[in-house]
Amino acid sequence: MANTASLSGNRRHFLDLCDLSAEEIRAILAAARRIKARRRAPLPTDKILAGKAIAMIFEQPSMRTRMSFDVGIRELGGESIMVTGKEIELGERESIADTARVLSRYVDGIMIRILSHGALKELAQYASVPVINGLTKTSHPCQVMADLQTFEEHKGDITGRTVTWVGDFNNVLRSWIEAAAKLKFTIRVSTPDELAPPDEVVRWAKDNGADLQQIRDPRAAVEGTDLVLADAWVSMGDKDAKRRHNLLRPYQVNRDLMKAAGEKAIFMHCLPAKRGEEVTDEILDGPQSVVFDEAENRLHAQKAILAYAYGEVLA
Ligand code: CP
Ligand code: NVA
Fold first, then answer.
1. Which pLDDT belongs to residue 300?
2. Cα of 9 from ligand 1 centre, angstroms
3. Is 161 an active-site residue?
4. E strands along the chain, which residues?
5. CA torsion through residues 48, 49, 52, 58, sign
6. CB neighbour class for 239 (10 Å; exposed up to 12, middle 13-18, buried from 19)
7. If pLDDT is split at 50, 70 and 90, which confidence band does 6 have?
8. CA dist 6 to 13, 102, 124, 308, Å?
9. Which of 87, 127, 165, 176 is the most exposed place for a label (fewest CB within 10 A)?
10. Is 232 in the pocket of ligand 2 (CB under 6 A)?
11. What are the C-alpha distances in Å from 106 to residues 66, 101, 205?
């Protein structure tokens, strides 16, 4: 058996919300709030990445994740190095394990976007520096940390509240379900049967005390909710775009659906959005939408995630 590196000291990977305790998630959210409030007048102690270089590897396209991590790393005093998976022929020229071992000799951390969750886990297993999940086909935990921050800015404590996902089961929804189990809020999921959460996810939710409610009719699902969530109907790596469009057309978030949700509901979308498909312009640009706060919070939440990865608190 090959040796597997492990993180020394108080450093940690950030791979999935299910790996964190509720207290750790709460601590990251609190740090994100503080770092956002003092962004233009940071404390000298905020430079937690001084002298550190973080590698960012993108096997898939990105705007928000790439830019917000780059800015966040700089604001924390560190340096970033960006490569695409293609440039280094990730997983092709050598094993992911060897890339992890070699990169760990050069840099102090790795943020990666890669479809294969198995490859992310392998990278983390063999890296001796923190690895951060910047989206896989399975999960998108950085996004959901920013979403939780945004929800609480607009609506207060999420514990005991109700959020409703309308669309297909995907990576963002999985991280939301994991967050619901940890922070104890209700998550309603409205999907066509063909694109519903797989049994193993429903079982995990049940075993971990998540209040996951599957309600096929989107109008019934959003009634009285605090938050309506949507995402593009075709995610990275999906091959069946036409079938998805046909199945998901009744799940568009539009004026009628937001009316069924009620005035107190806010609307979120991780972006990029396909305007006129999963959501209309009227809703995306309307008074219930908080999507640009949500996008901004990627920056603050990820700075707090970086602090978590190095055992720092950004007090
Ligand atoms: N929401 C999100 O992760 O956006 P990008 O794909 O642009 O990084
Ligand atoms: N579910 C989307 C999220 C994009 C940020 C995807 O995986 O493409």
1. 98
2. 31
3. no
4. 53-58, 79-84, 109-113, 131-133, 162-166, 186-190, 211-214, 227-230, 266-269
5. positive
6. exposed
7. confident
8. 10, 14, 9, 16
9. 87
10. yes
11. 20, 9, 39
pTM of the full predicted structure? 0.97
Distance of alpha carbon 40 from alpha carbon 23, whole angstroms = 28
Closest residue by Cα to residue 42 from 253, 310, 299: 299
CA of 171 to the centre of ligand 2 (A): 7
C-beta atoms surrounding 166 within 10 Å: 27
Find the range with the poorest average confidence among 4-18, 89-103, 163-177, 248-262: 4-18
Handedness of CA 95, 96, 99, 101 (dihedral sign): negative
Alpha-carbon gap, residue 279 to 276, rounded angstroms: 6
The predicted-structure confidence for 37-54, as pLDDT tens digits, reads as follows: 999 999 999 999 999 999
CA dist., res. 36 & res. 18, Å (int): 25
* Residue 174 appears among annotated catalytic residues: no
Give exposure, 127-158, as e/b (b: 16+ Cβ within 10 Å). Answer: bebbbbbbbbbbbbbbbbbbbbbbbbeebeeb
Q: Could you tell me the maximum CA-CA distance found in the chain, to the nearest angstrom?
A: 58
Helix (H) or strand (E) segment spanning residue 123: helix 117-126
Tokens encoding 176: 């939301």
Judge whether 114 and 59 are in contact, CB under 8 Å: yes
Annotated active-site residue 142? The verdict is no
- The yes-or-no verdict on residue 2 having pLDDT over 70 is no
Mean pLDDT, residues 165-180: 98
